[in-house]
Amino acid sequence: MSFRATILTLYPEMFPGHLGTSLAGKAMERGQWSLDTVQIRDFATDRHRTVDDTPAGGGAGMVLKPDVLARAIDHASENDNRPRLLMSPRGKPLTQKRVRELANGDGVIIVCGRFEGVDQRVIDGRDLEEVSIGDYILSGGEPAALILLDAIVRILPGVMGNDLSGLHESFEGGLLEHPHYTRPQLWEDREIPAVLTSGNHAAIAKWQREQAEQLTRERRPDLLDKMPKA
């Protein structure tokens, strides 16, 4: 059974984007995952195909209309239990844990917001899970959806050449990843740490763990606070 992603967007031409190339693109060709888009504007009923309106209570920008978006969601999710996600800067921060949960399912339905946001009533009425990829603002949800799918697709079984690769990366064990090195042994007067060429696997593992802890302590001390105490 392949992983199915359905994207609700005003700009379907933005997909599959970079996911149509490299490992993700090859996995799509093999049928390990699929992507289809739904044009939200197709569910507008007026002759101008209007999808947005001014915000109630005043303010700048426009808001996606709940009736139009709800029809698009209902069309995409009829008899379908896949999680319904809304890419939103106010959503819960995306974590590797959530990525793995989604990758273990049948797929996702992703709503890409535009303008000032989405009418709260459709978020509540269609049980949309708001997801954020970071504390910054994008022009729309499409780039965020591509990032989310990139994180999911790469860990689907058989997508990466070595499935073990995904188990030794930043955030998988709660820490940032240790530094990496490769030949040549000496480059611009900088050497590969001797322990990595010692052949002592226990010493190498200890070094990698210590380096990961040090990097995490320096750059993301918040991750250490979330780790279970020994």
Task: Please give a handful of descriptors for the protein shown.
230 residues, alpha/beta, Alpha/beta knot, Trp Operon Repressor, Chain A, 2 domains, five-stranded parallel sheet, three-stranded mixed sheet, 30% helix, elongated, tRNA_m1G_MeTrfase_TrmD, tRNA processing, methyltransferase, cytoplasm
Q: What does the model show?
A:
- The protein is α/β, with parallel strands linked by helices.
- The protein has 2 domains: 3-155, 3-Layer(aba) Sandwich (Alpha/beta knot); 168-229, tRNA(m1g37)methyltransferase, domain 2 (Trp Operon Repressor, Chain A).
- Helices cover 30% and strands 19% of the residues.
- The protein has helices at residues 22-29, 66-76, 96-103, 120-125, 142-153, 201-219, 221-226; strands at 3-9, 33-39, 52-53, 63-64, 84-93, 107-112, 117-118, 129-132, 186-187, 190-191.
- Strands 2-1-6-5-8 form a 5-stranded parallel β-sheet, with helices on both faces.
- Helix 3 packs across helix 5.
- The longest helix has 19 residues, at 201-219.
- The mean pLDDT is 94.
